Amino acid sequence: MEKDDKQRIMLEKVLKEHNYQESALLEILHRAQEIYGYLDKDLMMDISGSLNLPPSHVYGVVTFYSFFKLRKSGEHVVTGCLGTACYVRGVEQIMEAIEQEFKLKRGGSTADGKLSLLLTRCIGACAMAPNIVVDDEVIGKATKEVVTQKIREVLGGVKAET
Ligand code: FES
User: Which of 29, 64, 131, 157 has the most CB atoms around it within 10 Å of its CB?
Assistant: First the structure.
């Protein structure tokens, strides 16, 4: 049996234990992180489907709590907040700049798998809008220059891996 299958069976057991209740989302995410080591996009999609929750809700919860890891070591995740305040303050232009420069689409990853671009709803920091999360760091009052520079840094390994 593949390692991935074993992990999926363990996750299914956790989901069953909680009767696929959306109110158990936090506990399920914790257990999923214990099983997989991190919560990537496919896993969040899997959990959102199993609990019948919108993927944006699951992304929002995962990106809100710093104890959740979105990536394997060596991979980087950028999450744009598309809540109203961030949208009004121009997050869309920053997302477009990221997509162009790093050649990926929102919801996807670069061809080498080193960078993923996700979306979330409001992360609760509207006063600092627009917000972009680069790995574990929230960049408030973000500009496309600051964000793309930060992404270049993390991809270049300037930032220490956690
Ligand atoms: S809308 Fe982005 S932090 Fe609230």
Answer: 131
Give the architecture (CATH level 2) of 3-64.
Answer: Orthogonal Bundle (1.10)
In the chain, where does the domain assigned CATH 1.10.10 lie? 3-64
Distance 161 CA to ligand 1 centre (A): 26
The alpha carbon of 32 and the centre of ligand 1 are apart by a number of angstroms equal to 26
Homologous superfamily of domain range 76-155: Glutaredoxin (3.40.30.10)
DSSP codes of every residue in 61-129 = HHHHSTTS--S-TT-EEEEEE-SHHHHHTTHHHHHHHHHHHHT--TT-B-TTSSEEEEEES--S-GGG-
| Ligand 1 pocket, CB under 6 A | 81, 83-86, 122-126, 129, 131
